[in-house]
Write a structure and sequence with these properties.
The protein is an alpha/beta fold. The chain has a domain at 61-300: Aspartate Aminotransferase, domain 2 (3-Layer(aba) Sandwich). 41% of the residues lie in helices and 17% in strands. The chain has helices at 3-13, 46-49, 58-68, 83-94, 105-122, 143-147, 152-155, 173-179, 203-216, 267-270, 286-324, 347-355, 378-395, 398-406; strands spanning 27-29, 32-34, 40-43, 98-102, 130-134, 165-168, 184-189, 192-193, 199-200, 219-222, 247-250, 261-265, 328-334, 337-342, 358-359, 361-363, 367-370. The chain has a four-stranded mixed sheet with strand order 1-2-3-15. A four-stranded parallel sheet has the order 6-5-7-10, with helices on both faces. Helix 3 (58-68) packs antiparallel against helix 11 (286-324), helix 4 (83-94) runs parallel beside helix 11 and helix 11 (286-324) crosses helix 13 (378-395). The longest helix has 39 residues, at 286-324. The radius of gyration is 21 Å and the shape is globular. The model has no long low-confidence stretch (mean pLDDT 97). The structure holds pyridoxal-5'-phosphate.
Length: 407
């Protein structure tokens, strides 16, 4: 199949809810993806933060080979040997007490919201139903998770959404104390807003959320689906802030490309789901959990520290680029979750990158986002930065360039 055939089949048979780039992926190795005619792309997207070990990792390949002849799925009616050991590793990394597995990020956000409301009901606090989220947030696309997502264009077609959700300004400590009260079931935040332009929460803000939740009995939910599991150079982004949330949804790299999400919880919250209260057919299946064990063992073995070191190098290179490139407003993000805020729509740079052999993407319209595999090398970062140094000036619209040179 070539690209034209793939595009024609897509147009004929699939829902047209994605605007796919003109790239047919045929293979990959390390941080490089292969396409038709021997073309290659350096992958700074990693399947939106999923392929933490890059492509074709030898250990992952051998686990998959070994698992292929065994049981791939059991359902949650029975035990299998991989879910609890994966959960035990998540507990060690996070400091939380129990784990529920599902299949995606959205699903574990959904589980967190349900759990917060269920606990309140079980404690006789029927009024405690409100969920507070923040401007710039993204928590997923199911009705509950979407209700906590602020982007108007994602919400509008599906309204009315779930009642009881409210948005506060991000990084506004003052707004927290007055908004969180006895009706608040949960406050949900991202320590680094992935889809919202890579804004980082201030530690004072995260601590204000923790204090307000402690004071009122609301659940603090830290959505670590994009910023967690090593991405920011620590096992969890909240660890930089010196807080322990009550509920932590994770997903993306956990199954190393197989769909797997997990909700991590402190014991009193986890206890609110009794048998039958919540569940899933596929969640935590043996194959995905085998891969999670491999990934979590790498994190426990120091992979997050590697991300921290490589991320610091990448950050320094981007800072130098920003200082010498008028169209760049600032560098954002942490670890290997980095972005360049541009003074103009980042789309043309993304398109040019694709033409020149780099995969990057755009978030919040004007921010170029980089989510490379954790194993990305400094030489690969250098190649990307060199490309950006030429591409950003070339893509800066004339009218924007005029205002920048006058500034
Ligand atoms: C912070 C955050 N929460 C939730 C989600 C939804 O996860 P999924 O797409 O796996 O359902 C995402 C996905 O990008 C995310 O970045």
């Amino acid at each position: 199949m070539n690209l034209q055939e793939a595009q024609a089949l897509d147009a004929a048979h699939l829902f047209q809810n994605y605007k796919r780039a003109p790239l047919l992926v045929t293979g990959g190795r390390g941080c490089t993806l292969f396409g038709e005619g021997g073309r290659t792309w350096l992958d700074f997207v990693s399947g939106i933060g999923v392929n933490a070990l890059g492509h074709g990792d030898d250990r992952v390949v051998s686990i998959l080979r070994e698992a292929a002849g065994s049981v791939l799925h059991t359902s949650n009616l029975y035990h299998h040997p991989y879910a609890a050991p994966a959960a035990e590793r998540l507990k060690r990394l996070s400091g939380l007490d129990r784990v529920f597995f599902a299949n995606s990020g959205t699903e574990v956000v959904e589980a967190a919201i349900k759990l917060a409301r269920a606990r309140a009901k079980k404690r006789g606090e029927g009024e405690r139903v409100e969920v507070l989220a923040f401007e710039g947030s993204f928590h997923g696309r199911t009705l509950g998770a979407l209700s906590a997502t602020s982007t108007e264009k994602y919400r509008a077609p599906f309204e009315p959404l779930v009642p009881g959700f409210r948005f506060l300004p991000f990084n506004d400590e003052g707004a927290i104390a007055s908004a969180v009260g006895p009706r608040t079931a949960a406050v949900i935040l991202e320590c680094v807003q992935g889809e919202g332009g890579l804004a980082s929460a201030r530690p004072t803000f995260t601590r204000a959320v923790r204090e307000a939740c402690d004071r009122t009995g609301a659940a603090m939910i830290a959505d670590e689906i994009q910023c967690g599991l090593g991405r920011t150079g620590r096992p969890f982004a909240y660890q930089k802030h010196g807080v322990l949330p009550d509920l932590v949804p994770v997903a993306k790299p956990l199954g190393l490309g197989l769909p797997l999400g997990a909700l991590l919880a402190r014991e009193p919250w986890a206890a609110a789901f009794a048998p039958g209260d919540h569940g899933t057919t596929f969640g935590g299946n043996p194959l995905a959990c085998r891969l999670a064990i491999e990934f979590l063992d790498r994190l426990l073995g120091g992979l997050a520290e590697v991300v921290g070191e490589t991320g610091a190098y990448f950050h320094t290179r981007l800072e130098a680029l920003a200082a010498s490139t008028p169209g760049v407003l600032e560098v954002r993000g942490e670890g290997l979750m980095l972005g360049l805020a541009l003074a103009f729509d980042a789309g043309p740079v993304v398109d040019r990158a694709l033409e020149e052999g780099f995969l990057v993407n755009r978030t919040a319209g004007t921010v170029l986002r980089f989510l490379p595999p954790f194993v990305v090398g400094r030489g690969e970062i250098d190649r990307l930065v060199e490309f950006l140094a030429a591409a950003i000036p070339a893509c800066t619209p004339t009218e924007v360039a005029g205002t920048l040179s006058r500034a």
